[in-house]
Amino acid sequence: MNTDPWRSIGAGATGPVVAGAQYLLRARGHAIVADGDYGPVTAAAVSAFQASAGLPVDGAVGEADWPLLVVTVGSGASGDAVRAVQQFGLLSMPGDTPLAIDGSYGPLTAARIRFFQESWGLTSDGIAGPATWSFLSTMLPGPRPWPLVAVGATQATNWRVRAAQHLLRARGAPIAADGVFGPASGAAVFAFQGTLRDSDWGTALGQLDWPSLVVQVRQGDTGEAVRAAQTLLPGPVTVDGDFGPQTDAATRAFQQAFAPPADGIVGPDTWHALTLRLFD
Fold first, then answer.
1. What pLDDT digit, counting tens, does each position of 209-268 carry?
2. Are 32 and 25 in contact (CB under 8 A)?
3. N or C: which terminal CB in the chain sees fewer CB atoms within 10 Å?
4. Cα–Cα distance between 134 and 199 in angstroms, integer?
5. Which are the contacts of 57, defined by CB distance < 8 A and separation ≥ 6?
6. Under 8 Å CB-to-CB from 274, ≥6 apart: which residues?
């Protein structure tokens, strides 16, 4: 759950996540229509899939069901499992043409998946496997997940790396905020997780970590948490650890566009928005 934010769907749900599950069921031999409407026929197909997979049968696709339902697809693949991915559209920017739902995993589908993966801090390999599907499953109304920062990431491949390192330093980790999330940063994550819970420890920052890692900052504050916010804020912001007028103005401008109210306080909602890929 920390690194795979699966979302559950069931009777009455609609939209691309439902259509994705329906195409996956078709890929597994269930003759249903992928219409994006989770009705009785879909529930019956899910129940049949659960029974065949040895899962509890409740007709809803939940956290335990998705990993067994998804089909890993990549370049050269074809069929309904590819359509399951393509029907999300996967725009790289506003104005993009959505992917054609043609069941052929070509270069454009691979490129759009790589962009999606990079947006969430996943390994950007262009292959739609369980980790990628865990984030696709969250494309529903409601709160968005937190992205990942994993060992092996750099500032160039995941723009949150330095912010994560500064926040870990703010929590006492003796690491450098050098933009390379190596073994020392992973060990700092593991140690931090040990202060939060009894299990589900690892070396990647995920869903259970960010809410406790972020530190509320505002004008007049100084230190590593301020540096973390400054690395994420758009515009000409000096990363000096001093939350002065420049940082305040950049914070308010960002909040006005993406995370109102524009109060200049970098709290949980603003931190979350700063870690996401957002478009004007």
1. 999 999 999 999 999 999 999 999 998 899 999 999 999 999 999 999 999 999 999 999
2. yes
3. C
4. 20
5. 47, 50, 51
6. 163, 229, 232, 233, 254, 259, 266
